[in-house]
């Protein structure tokens, strides 16, 4: 059994739907456009025009602003989830925020952050302890990489935990992933 949503046909209906969606959670302009396109006939010129009109109206009223969204999102991910700069940047790119806006927001939010301290808070939040063997060390290393911390910071933490140097050298190949 398939579930089909009723297509919205007027600017007012689409606007009310958009405000409701923004009331549930903040969204980037690209996210909201994707959501609205699903509710109109996206193939027709009228549907495309309706989406653009509603987006313009929301921007003019101050409900949609990618710069504020990126700054708020970055601060939330930094403070609550203890993620690193790279993870936040990647997440914002996925959400369709423009690169310059991301750079500005992430730079301002992470300017005063000590990355090592942030990584340690992340480890504490995830209840990760000092690894006892190679497998646990690899798990901690990969988890910190996924959380958006740089290899340099991860190696500093692992060295302070007295992890064998030859084991750390084996992780250097994994840490040469391209910068985001």
Report the total helices. Answer: 10
Secondary structure tally: strands: 0
Shape field: elongated
Task: Tell me the domain tally.
Answer: 3
Largest sheet: none
Order of helices and strands: HHHHHHHHHH
Report on the architecture of this protein.
Helix content is 64%, strand content 0%. It is an all-alpha fold and 180 residues long. The protein has 3 domains: 11-60; 66-110; 115-171, no CATH class.
What's the SSE blueprint?
Elements: H1 11-24, H2 29-37, H3 45-60, H4 66-79, H5 85-94, H6 99-110, H7 115-125, H8 134-146, H9 151-160, H10 165-171
What's a quick, concise take on this entry?
With 180 residues, this protein is an all-alpha fold. 64% of the residues lie in helices and 0% in strands. Helix 7 (115-125) packs across helix 9 (151-160).
